[in-house]
């Protein structure tokens, strides 16, 4: 008896020492912990007010059960939010270990076995994963408390003592307020089988042995216990509804009508092996080897219902590997639920049996049997293997985040928080990019608002809910939907009062630049701040969805009360019993322990066969992994490997695939590779690669490599040609030739005009002083046309900065029908030069993008295409438009020193050369091509991003194929409703540019016998990745 | 009715000169006064004093002016009931209405006017904008002054405001009177670019200086020229184009940063383009020399405003000829050495292409390379080009050479 408690206490001590110290290194980089921290911050700040403006332009925290958040909030009053979070995590650890102990004790009735189970729970890989990788605190707390409630439920149904009804209901209430899914599914998967077991036990009391329990006897016992079961069921249903009534109210009012977000737990684990690892291999861990024993035990008569439940959980946890979970759950539930929780429950349900196995292995009949059959050494080896396996899984799981970080490196938030607090920067919304889940921690520290958020069920903007993205912040991982969503926010940021972007990932830089954003400053923590001009601040009063006062009071008081009540009722019963400080009578279920004396010999055999199968399975996996990675086995493989190396910027590996006879040494290769900058080498991710061997001649071959790259701007397709050679059985690539061009001068001297805008010259906490506000530069719209081309409506034209200072240009167009009803509005994205020098002109094109997949039923394209454009679906024909342009003084990104060095007409179009005569390296050059008809009237504006950059004093070659404009229809051409800084364009034109010579524009367009057009004009827009 | 109302209107300090001399103490007025004192100076305390009120129920006074409205209670003071008007109301200029209400009945009502306090120097807010205008006398900035008393009440209409402006040591002064809150003056641009300073004074208050910048008007027609080190098309040296000093019609140099587009038409009809931003009225831009004989026609534009003359730039062939040597099996071509105009080796990077055609003249492939140390070599592997006759077209610096060779 004394030893039992020792095992539990050892388990608790190890758990607190091991997990309690590890959480300080893991919890903050988990997926969920910081989200809970943000919610906690909300409660700490305004306990009873459920509306939070900081995410998603406002959302309600009543969309998640509040207990854990409120507990963290309460503790945060003592030592801050993180203190609160770690304290709650420690409590969760203790609750979990004791919960498993009590659950095991209930199931086995053997303290020793339960002690083993508690000890194994400490090292359970599923627990480690849930806590240290996922950070699902509410789920853990909910589950642990549910485990604590199980013995009480058993005792109530068995004995009918009201004391147990009170204890079990009080614990159910705590479960409900900490996590909503746990009690609902816990009901089905834990409590139903438990009830079955009680009935079975009661039935057994009627007869001598379990074997004699037949269905009639079982049914009689069931009838006897029926009202206790029903009363418990009704009472707990009542608790589930009332304890988190505001949550249900909110779910009803704001039903989740969003496009399902892909989750790894729904993947086919055999296809997506990474998901298989995280959502199957890790949680199961060493238990995989013991499945035969677990099933054998669970399908014994007493545990029969647990067996059914366990089988179901195991099956559902396999996600999309088999079609069964989808059929069982139905499409909706399958797409909303994350199926890993079923595996979590299955593995935790298996812990008592695992404990039992450990007991039998270490000191029970299995030990005896193994020693008798295979000898003592084998038993020790087997024990060592199992223990080693457990430890291996522990280390593997704990370090997973170290070797494959799921989050960007920890960001120091203080500079960002300070930035938002200074100069009224929090009067606008901000958007973090590339922060991972740390964005929640940023949000928790500031009052500033973002359009993004980290709790996707609460998303409200249709731009977000219609796309399968969790956050805009990590949109690059979500392909077309992600970048598409991001582009909408970047193109019309004024709609959301979005002015600042904190970029932690330079991948997004080009799209920010080409959407008209500019770099403001780099903070001390390396985060680049981008800003957009011409954005109005957030209004002082913003709408919110209010809820009745009583719901707010319920939400603020019930959860903590459930804990207090549960604590009062249970403290005496459970803790005293667990720690056995006092002798108490044996609990009812303690009499039902079985004697472990006859371990089935067949089971040993089956288990060995099963373990062998698993080893074979793992072996095949490793072998396949190896075969895929033999690089120089064939011509195909070497090209694949070369591009793989380039994609991950492993240049040394890439160099090893080059023909050694070509004598390009690594230093030379690195030099040649490192000087190429541009969208492909700096901002692209290889999406797919198609290799075609066009001239396979024995030990030589030519390969045409069709690559598709994802860039933030568009999907890039580029064909490369390589010559391959086989030398002593290994295939190599012949190095491509490099441009030998040498600029004429070593030192180049350049001068230019630079600009600086003070912002505020005078310190003030009020609005900027009148005299510190610059005049908006005056623009003139030279032409504006509404055209329809390929079923899309666009507004195209040209405008000029007619002021004497550089201007940042924003152009917004609105379409109307004949009855002057607004049909759509949008801003110019990247078919415009957003920064204009005095007297510079730019063509522009405004495409009217709808919110992509406005209906969630529309199919989402399976492949990734950031350039994919969703034309708005207009209910009526637009017949007129207005155009609002605004200039603001610009002082950055004014590089204009890229010239057209040559432009030769070819059969297909143009072959040109750009020449950079300035002192900044242009990372992404963009051509804007305007098309004119025979009367020099503008018809269309096209763009072309060059794949490579233009280095200082060097050339870059490009090809451009003009498109055909067949079918283009000019619907309206008018400057009547064009406005500049709110003033009519005609008045501006008359005042600032009364004697405009219109022949200049004509003189600059060159003739081209195109299909549907007669003249072309090229303009340059240069993105500089690293301004010096 | 036994009660007789007696109304005392107390003006502790009577403000305006129109009203009369400031008095201290209490002015008692009979119930039905014929010529009530109806105006006070902003900021002076105002007390309403009533006698003979029915004391059974509380009476109250409802007051309203532009600050807002309030219901005030009365306090007993000896024989009279006194109502003190709060400071926020007495500091706001304009009519102040009051009503004495008792038994839900208006017993007495009247109004008085609070006038701005003209004794202290006023605050003068000034606004001047736009902050930049164009020369030529058409464009202007507007200076608006808003003089107010210390309680932020506008001063009396017709208050004198002096507006001063300075441009290139020429100080001008204008007398204006306030009307509808403000006194204002349009400051028109001159024909000379520069900076106009303005200020204003009202009573004893002077304002800070404000400025507007006079930017030059649009440029007029201009001249361009070019500079280069030699006339040879070596594809390496830099040619730069620049304008003369760009001026507007009044002779002002145009503003820094103005974009000038140099449009170059080459002899094949291509429109090349390079742009320069002006500094000190001059804009300059560069291009590389072409790689072959060329004739460029260059015109510069400040689009819509001004255009330059057209100049013509001719480039001579730098590489007059080159040789191609073949290996014994003809599978390796060495082109060069490519030599420039002084027989020096041409700078690295000039493009060389080899077009490969089979014996029937069918195009097979084009190989591209750049010369290093004047040499560019190509290899034609036997795996791709089987034995036989081929036509090879070597092109460099605009010179095309054709060879018929048998690859072995």
Folded structure, characterized:
The complex is a heterodimer of chains A (1028) and B (408). Chain A is an alpha+beta fold. In chain A, strand 25 (978-980) and strand 26 form a beta hairpin. Chain A is globular and about 110 Å long. Residues 851-866 of chain A have low confidence and may be disordered. Chain B folds into 4 domains: 6-115, Immunoglobulins (Immunoglobulin-like, Sandwich); 123-215, Immunoglobulin-like (Sandwich), CATH 2.60.40.10; 224-317, Immunoglobulin-like, CATH 2.60.40; 324-407, Immunoglobulin-like. The chains are: A alpha+beta (1028), B mainly beta (408).
Beta-strand residue fraction of chain A: 15-25%
Q: Count the DSSP helices of chain B.
A: 1
Number of helices of chain A: 32
Report the radius of gyration of chain B as a whole number of Å: 45 Å
Under CATH, the topology of the largest domain in chain B can be stated as Immunoglobulin-like
Class from helix and strand fractions of chain A: alpha+beta
Largest sheet of chain A: 6 strands, mixed
Biggest interface, and residues per chain? A-B, 64 and 59 residues
Q: Mean pLDDT across all residues of chain A, rounded?
A: 86
Which geometry of chain A do the CA atoms define? globular
Low-confidence stretches of chain A: 851-866
Report how far apart the termini of chain B are: 139 Å
Beta fraction of chain B = over 45%
Shape of chain B: elongated
Number of distinct beta strands of chain B: 33
């Amino acid at each position: 008896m004394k030893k039992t408690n020792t095992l539990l206490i050892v388990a608790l001590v190890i758990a607190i020492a091991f997990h309690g110290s590890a959480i300080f290194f893991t919890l903050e980089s988990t997926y969920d912990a910081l989200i809970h921290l943000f919610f906690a911050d909300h409660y700490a700040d305004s306990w009873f007010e459920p509306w939070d403006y900081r995410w998603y332009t406002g959302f309600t925290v009543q969309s998640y059960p509040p207990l854990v958040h409120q507990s963290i909030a309460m503790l945060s009053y003592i030592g801050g939010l993180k203190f609160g979070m770690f304290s709650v995590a420690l409590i969760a650890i203790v609750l979990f270990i004791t919960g498993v102990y009590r659950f095991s004790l209930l199931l086995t009735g053997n303290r020793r076995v339960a002690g083993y189970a508690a000890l194994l729970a400490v090292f359970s890989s599923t627990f480690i994963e849930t806590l240290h990788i996922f950070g699902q605190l509410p789920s853990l707390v909910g589950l642990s408390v549910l485990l604590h409630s199980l013995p009480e439920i058993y005792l109530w149904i068995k004995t009918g003592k009201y004391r147990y009804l009170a204890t079990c209901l009080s614990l159910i209430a705590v479960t409900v307020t900490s996590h909503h899914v746990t009690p609902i599914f816990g009901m089905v998967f834990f409590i139903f089988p438990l009830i079955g077991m009680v009935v079975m036990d009661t039935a057994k009391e009627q007869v001598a042995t379990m074997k004699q329990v037949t269905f009639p006897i079982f049914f009689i016992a069931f009838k006897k216990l029926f009202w206790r079961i029903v009363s418990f069921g009704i009472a707990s249903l009542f608790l589930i509804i009332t304890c988190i009534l505001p949550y249900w109210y909110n779910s009803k009012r704001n039903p989740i009508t969003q496009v399902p977000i892909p989750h790894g737990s729904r993947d086919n684990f055999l296809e997506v092996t990474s998901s298989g690892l995280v959502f199957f291999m890790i949680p199961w861990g060493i238990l995989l080897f013991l499945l035969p024993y677990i099933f054998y035990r669970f399908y014994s008569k007493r545990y029969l219902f647990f067996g059914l439940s366990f089988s179901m959980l195991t099956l559902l946890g396999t996600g999309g590997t088999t079609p069964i979970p989808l059929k069982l759950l139905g499409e909706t539930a399958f797409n909303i639920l994350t199926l890993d929780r079923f595996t979590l429950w299955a593995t935790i349900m298996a812990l008592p049996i695992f404990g039992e196995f450990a007991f039998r292995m270490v000191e029970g009949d299995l030990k005896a049997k193994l020693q008798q059959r295979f000898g003592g050494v084998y038993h020790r080896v087997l024990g060592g293997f199992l223990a080693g396996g457990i430890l291996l899984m522990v280390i593997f799981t704990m370090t997973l985040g170290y070797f494959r970080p799921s989050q960007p490196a920890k960001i120091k938030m203080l500079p960002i928080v300070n930035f938002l607090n200074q100069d009224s920067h929090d009067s606008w919304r901000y958007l973090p990019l590339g922060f991972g889940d740390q964005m929640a921690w940023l949000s928790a520290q500031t009052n500033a608002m973002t359009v993004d958020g980290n709790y996707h069920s609460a998303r409200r903007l249709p731009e977000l809910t219609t796309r399968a993205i969790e956050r805009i912040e990590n949109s690059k991982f979500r392909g077309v939907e992600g970048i598409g969503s991001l582009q909408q926010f970047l193109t019309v940021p004024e709609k959301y009062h979005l002015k600042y972007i904190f970029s932690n990932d330079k991948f997004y830089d080009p799209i920010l630049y080409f959407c008209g954003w500019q770099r403001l400053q780099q903070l001390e923590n390396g985060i680049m701040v981008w800003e957009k001009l011409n954005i109005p601040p957030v209004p002082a009063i913003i709408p919110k969805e209010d809820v009745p006062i009583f719901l707010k009071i319920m939400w603020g008081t019930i959860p903590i009360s459930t804990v207090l009540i549960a604590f009062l009722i249970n403290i005496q019963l459970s803790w005293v019993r667990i720690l056995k400080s006092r002798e108490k009578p044996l609990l009812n279920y303690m009499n039902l322990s079985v004697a472990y004396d006859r371990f089935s010999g067949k089971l040993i055999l089956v288990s060995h066969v099963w373990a062998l199968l698993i080893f074979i399975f793992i072996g095949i996996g490793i072998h396949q992994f190896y075969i895929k990675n033999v690089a120089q086995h064939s011509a195909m493989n070497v090209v694949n490997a070369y591009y793989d190396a380039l994609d991950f910027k492993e240049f040394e590996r890439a160099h090893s695939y080059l023909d050694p006879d070509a004598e390009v040494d690594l230093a030379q290769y690195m030099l040649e590779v490192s000087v190429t900058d541009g969208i492909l080498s700096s901002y692209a991710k290889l999406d797919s690669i198609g290799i075609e061997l066009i001239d396979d001649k024995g030990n030589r071959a030519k390969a045409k490599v069709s690559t598709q790259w994802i860039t933030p701007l568009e999907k890039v397709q580029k064909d490369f040609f390589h010559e391959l050679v086989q030398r002593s059985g290994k295939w190599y690539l012949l190095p491509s030739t490099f441009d030998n061009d040498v600029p004429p001068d070593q030192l180049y001297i350049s001068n230019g005009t630079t600009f600086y805008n003070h912002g505020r010259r005078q310190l003030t906490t009020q609005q900027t002083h009148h005299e510190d506000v610059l005049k908006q530069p005056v623009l003139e719209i030279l032409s504006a046309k509404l055209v329809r081309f390929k079923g899309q409506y666009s507004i195209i034209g040209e405008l000029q900065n007619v002021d004497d200072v550089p201007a940042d240009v924003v152009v917004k167009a609105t379409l109307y029908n004949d009855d002057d009803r607004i049909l759509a509005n949008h801003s110019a994205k990247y078919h415009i030069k957003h920064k204009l020098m005095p007297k510079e002109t730019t063509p522009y094109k405004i495409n009217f993008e709808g919110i992509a997949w406005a209906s969630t039923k529309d199919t989402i394209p399976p492949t990734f295409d950031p350039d994919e454009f969703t034309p708005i679906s207009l209910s009526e024909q637009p017949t007129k438009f207005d155009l609002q342009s605004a200039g603001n003084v610009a002082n950055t990104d004014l590089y204009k020193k890229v010239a057209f060095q040559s432009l030769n007409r070819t059969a297909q179009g143009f072959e040109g050369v750009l020449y950079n005569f300035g002192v900044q390296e242009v990372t992404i050059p963009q051509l804007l091509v305007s098309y004119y008809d025979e009367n020099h009237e503008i018809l269309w504006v096209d763009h072309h991003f060059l794949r490579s950059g233009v280095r200082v004093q060097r050339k870059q070659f490009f090809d451009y194929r003009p498109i055909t404009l067949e079918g283009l229809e000019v619907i309206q051409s008018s400057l009547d409703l064009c406005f500049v800084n709110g003033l009519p364009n005609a008045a501006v034109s008359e005042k600032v540019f009364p004697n405009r010579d219109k022949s200049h524009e004509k003189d600059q367009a060159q003739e081209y016998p195109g299909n549907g057009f007669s003249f072309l004009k090229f303009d340059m827009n240069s993105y500089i990745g690293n301004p010096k | 009715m036994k009660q007789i109302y007696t109304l005392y209107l107390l003006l502790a300090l009577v403000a305006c000169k129109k009203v009369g001399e400031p008095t201290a103490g209490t002015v008692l007025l009979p119930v039905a006064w014929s010529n009530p004192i109806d105006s006070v100076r902003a900021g002076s305390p105002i007390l309403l004093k009533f006698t003979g009120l029915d004391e059974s129920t509380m009476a109250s006074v409802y007051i309203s002016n532009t600050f807002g409205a309030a219901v005030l209670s009365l306090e007993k003071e000896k024989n009279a009931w006194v109502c003190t008007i709060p400071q926020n109301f007495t500091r706001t200029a304009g009519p102040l209405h009051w009503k004495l209400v008792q038994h839900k009945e208006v017993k007495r009502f009247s109004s008085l006017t609070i006038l701005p306090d003209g004794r202290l120097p006023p605050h003068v807010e000034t606004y001047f904008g736009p902050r930049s205008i164009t020369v030529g006398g058409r464009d202007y900035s507007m200076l608006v002054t808003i003089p107010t008393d210390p309680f932020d009440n506008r001063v009396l209409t017709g208050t004198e405001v002096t507006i001063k402006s300075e441009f290139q040591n020429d100080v001008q002064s204008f007398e204006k009177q306030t009307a509808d809150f403000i006194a204002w003056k349009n400051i028109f641009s001159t024909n000379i670019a520069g900076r106009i300073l303005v200020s204003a004074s009202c009573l004893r208050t002077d304002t800070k200086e404000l400025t507007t910048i006079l930017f030059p008007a649009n440029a007029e027609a201009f001249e361009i020229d070019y500079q280069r080190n030699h006339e040879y098309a070596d594809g390496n040296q830099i040619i730069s184009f620049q304008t003369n000093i760009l001026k507007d019609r009044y002779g002002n140099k145009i503003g820094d940063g103005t974009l000038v587009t140099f449009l170059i038409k080459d002899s094949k009809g291509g429109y090349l383009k390079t742009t320069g931003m002006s500094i000190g009225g001059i804009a300059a831009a560069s291009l590389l020399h072409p790689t072959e004989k060329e004739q460029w026609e260059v015109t510069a534009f400040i689009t819509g405003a001004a255009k330059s003359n057209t100049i013509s730039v001719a480039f001579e062939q730098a590489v007059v000829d080159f040789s191609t040597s073949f290996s014994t099996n003809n599978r390796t071509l060495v082109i060069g050495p490519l030599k420039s105009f002084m027989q020096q080796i041409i700078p690295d990077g000039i493009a060389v292409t080899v077009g490969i055609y089979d014996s029937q003249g069918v195009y097979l492939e084009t190989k591209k390379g750049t010369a290093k140390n004047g040499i560019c070599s190509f290899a034609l592997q036997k795996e791709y080009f089987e034995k036989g006759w081929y036509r090879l077209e070597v092109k460099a610096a605009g010179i095309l050479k054709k060879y018929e060779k048998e690859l072995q």
